[in-house]
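Note to self: keep these together.
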Amino acid sequence: MQKSRVRLGPHLLAQTTPNPNPKSPKFYKALGVALIVILAILAVQQYSERKPRENIGLPQTESVLGAETQDSNFYAYQTQPGDSLFSLSEKFQVSWEELASLNLLKEPFALEPGQSLKIPYSAATRQQKFYDNLKKKIYVVEDGDSFVGIAQKLNISVTDLLRANPDLQSPDFIRIGQALHLP
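Structure:
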């Protein structure tokens, strides 16, 4: 087969016969679709073969951000150096007498650092619980939460939240009570 060429100028030639490449663009399109279908089937098989994880290493604590225990009406507070019944009553908006009777404290009402006190739930204790658990870097999904909404609420990027939860199967399918790690 002889190739015919047309001279378009002193240095420019144009080929007039069709491209000898036997594979057409349709072939590559069909190959791409077949590859996508195969990958989708493998992903579904891998997802269906996964066993649910019973213990994923989350801390075993009742004090988790967003989680409210219905059995207890009290917040557990660990005293810090310099805490007194009066300062705690101011901080949590509870009378010092109520704190003393609730925790069976006797005069002189001295508190030791690290001592655990029960404090009745109030707006202040809920706020304190929220900030204490931010330090633990855990968030428990509440009713109405979305992955993006959680990131916005905590002022972190969605990408960082995804990186902190590599075992999360899909950010679109979070459930109420699910614990998420925070970056």
